[in-house]
Amino acid sequence: MVAFLVRRIFQMFVVTIVAALLSYGLLYLVPGGPVDALLAERQNSGQDRINQADIQRVQQRFDLDVYLPFRFTRWLIGWPSGPLFGSVGADWAIGCQTPGQVRLVYPDGTFELVEEGCADYLTLAELEGRRVSRGVFFGDFGVSQVILRDRPVSDLIATRLPYTLSLMGASILLAILIGVPIGIYSAVKQYSRFDYTMTTIAFIGSSLPSFVFGIFAILIFSVLAQRAGLPFLPPGDAVGVRDYTIPWIGTVQAGSFLDRFLRFLMPVSVLTFINIAGWSRFVRGSMLEVLQQDYVRTARAKGVREQVVITKHALRNSLIPFVTLLAGVLAALFGGALITESVFNWPGLGRLFIDALGRNDYNVVMALLFINVVLLLIGILITDILYTIVDPRIRLG
Amino acid sequence: MATAPETSARVQQAVDSSDKRILLRVEGLKTHFFTDEGVVQAVDGVDFEVKRGETLSIVGESGSGKSVTSLSILRLISRPGRVVEGRMIFDGEDLLAKSEEDMRKIRGDRISMIFQQPTTALNPVFRVGAQITETLNIHQGLTGEEAERRCIELLTMVGLPDPASRMNQYPHELSGGQCQRVMIAMALACTPELLIADEPTTALDVTIQAQILDLMREMREKIDTAIILITHDMGVVAEMADNVIVMYAGQVVEYASVRAIFAEPKHPYTVGLLNSMPVLGEVREELAVIPGTVPSLINPPTGCRFASRCSHRFEKCDEAPPMVALEHGRKVRCWLFE
Fold first, then answer.
1. Domain boundaries of chain A, sorted by first residue
2. Which of A294, A300, A302 minimises the CB distance to B134?
3. Residue A15 has pLDDT above 50, yes or no
4. ipTM of the complex
5. Which of A116, B38, B120, B238 is 20 to 30 Å from A357 at the Cα level?
6. Does A395 touch chain B (CB under 8 A)?
7. Taking CA atoms, what residue in B is nearest to A305?
8. What is the pTM of this model?
């Protein structure tokens, strides 16, 4: 067990670094970023508003002038932050402050300035005194570069986390509590009307994309209900700005518990519905397979009550594959629902991720990806340990 | 208690059926499966009797309805199958008329069953001891140490070495033969009056097969239970059975004592079955086979079901043959003996 854990944690460590490296590299390839945002501003507001010095300052602040490998290690572990051992390599170039320019002259006399090489290298000595995070590995995700410029990413995540945790926690819990019994009952009553109904609904639930349900829910329960003068639900946001009146219920104060609850209802229902579809289909399939097994027939032939056959002999076995799904739950809990959160303008981590991705806020994107990778790996580790508990045939080793 | 000299007496006795000793009488049992392709008449009008302490063997090819017959007795046929007709009088009461709850009390207590694949017939996530004590708990209300003690007794009885530690193991930690011993211990836990053994040795190695057969014989002497032994292995029949039923395509085609079957098989199908058995020391060009295959049970032939594969076929075989009673209680379903 100890040997297993040591080996697995070492593996997880390696996987995390590789995953971080790959996502960092991918993100680097994506065009855009804080400097592009500045340049866009410059175009919009006249030549003189933003000059080369401004750009350099922004690059410096966000380490964008440091070459990618060093930028990555500075992000990961906060190193290097100056000459090594105090003095070694003070003049080593690890970045470029001002790109070099080459004058290309065409035969017809016109010319063009092309960036090439480097006019002013960034040396290790110049890194000294520059603000650097302690490194992701030590829990410092750096600062946001676009969304909330200069605010620590951890602050940004902390303000969004409760929204995601409540939304995902409630929907996953409800989905398991409802979906698992439905799956079991569906399997036990295979080909019954209940089974047909549930499998059809589950099929629809797991095949339509989630924004369809979100948009239809808003259309029916907000827009049409309000138009018809029926009680309606607020279409989005987690907290209201203005008081509003709902027929039969009365005035709802913005920011009150009722306001928050009403706004919580729709996204959580949509997510629960989608999750129920997934869980119940999975449990049904697994249960159906187990019910075919010889040992279930043995249990019946022993005189075990049918109810006990299902809940003890069959269920215990059908939960073995079910444990695999739990690996993803931990990551999903913190990852949030990208699409549903966007549809309902829900200020959770899922929407933060999409925002950050769209606006090239590297540190935020990387922080969320990194947390997700770590949680997923922890989830898988827990799953592997759980397996040995549910299935005696499986040994850690 | 049957001892060796009594065995031959028992064979004689099997022929004249004194009603008192009859444990189970199956009459006109029909079990059909209602599938999308049509109604599969897996068991179509089967009659037989089992006397107390008797070992009755049911033989036939795959798909002849042997297993379905045995599961029908325990009423363990699940959808889309159903017992559509017949009576199964067990100790004077019709099993088909019993409520599900009464039936459940009979299963594992008065009638128990062992299966073909011992390794998959045990639940992989429970310790074998717990699976045996569960039966003791259901039918005898034994719990805790009392159940454990009885469990160790049972495991010792079926010859599992070191039962006290074995009972804390999971099925995957035991071999196939050991699992079958556990299954037998579980089946005999409540000293049933009838034990249904559905090909109990088919999945085992030949040496283990012999051990398990020895064990079953020993147990039969010990607790005086009647056994319905389902098999396609005529060797097993010769070793174990008092009387034999030969099934073909969902029907009983012959019933006789084990000696009579081997000495003088009547039904052409039985003859074929016996001829297709390899005999040690006998040199043959190739193994005799019965030509053709079992007919579809969705639309079985209206006449004799074996006719298409029978070498003695004549005009009359287009009509369904009745069960013909012969001397010594033998029965055969064939126009040749009319």
1. 31-140, 154-390
2. A302
3. yes
4. 0.85
5. A116
6. no
7. B104
8. 0.80
